[in-house]
Amino acid sequence: MSFHRLLIATLIGPELARWKARGHAPVFWWRDDDARRPTPALERLLGLSVRFAAPITIAAVPDGDIVALAKASRAIPDVELAVHGFRHENRAPPGWPSGEVNDLDRLADVMSDLGTAIDVFRRAGVTPRLFVPPWNNAHPTLKRALGLQGLGLSCYGDMRGEAEPDRLDAHLDVMRWKPEPRFRGTVRFLLRTRRLLAERRVKAAWDEPLGLLTHHLDHDEAVWRFLEAFLPVAKPVARTTFGRPVAGRGHIALKVG
Asked: 3-state DSSP helix/strand/coil percent for the chain, to nearest 5?
């Protein structure tokens, strides 16, 4: 047994056993951010998706080569493209949280930028259903625009509240970002996973999805090796299956988007 598999079995194995004893299995889904065009790293990511039958949602920046990304995605089962911002540019005034939308923006302007981004995807033959704001900055004006366009929202956070039924966050980032991008570490990642699994079990939120977050362009070999061990345990399901029976899991997942 590899080092990663041993730690997975030790740190989250008992929690998974508690789920199984109650007749449930966690619903994992997988999102990867910052795609702009096909790259060797993206090819490696999609290879993992195929190898482990792990559907993936790829958040793509509209200023990239969406046509090429759409072509690459269509060649792989259960790959979804989501809109990752407008241009992935920080427009926040000095001292404000990073983001593309801020208090100075009018709804009409945000709607225009959003419409332009959606059109890029549609011209590539993709009908996007999900929007991933850069820096996880879901400004109220952006949320309103997404609602008017009928797009779901995905950031990074904890369990959803009833007020945002069309929101589906990622929760488990394999990366640490400061002072520079690097693998979060197997133990640190798995301890967070265990905590979030236990939280769902205690609340009987068996169908609340748990989102794995990756950034293929920033992965080092430690991340790739960890994913090879974690994906066959997590068994991610396609976001588009939420709301329908998931084969082999014996429950119905929540519908989002």
From this structure: 40, 15, 45
If you ran DSSP here, which 8-state letter would residue 76 be given?
Answer: S
CA pair distance 177, 254, nearest whole angstrom: 31
Contact between residue 250 and residue 24 where contact means Cβ atoms under 8 Å apart: yes
Q: Tell me the two tokens of residue 126.
A: 């993709």
- Domains of the chain (ranges; CATH) run 3-241 (3.20.20.370)
Q: What is the pTM of this model?
A: 0.91
- Tell me the pLDDT tens digit for each residue of 37-73: 999 999 999 999 999 999 999 999 999 999 999 999 9
Helices (H), 136-255: 140-149, 186-202, 221-234
245 prior amide bond cis, ω within 30: no
H/E segment holding residue 68: helix 66-74
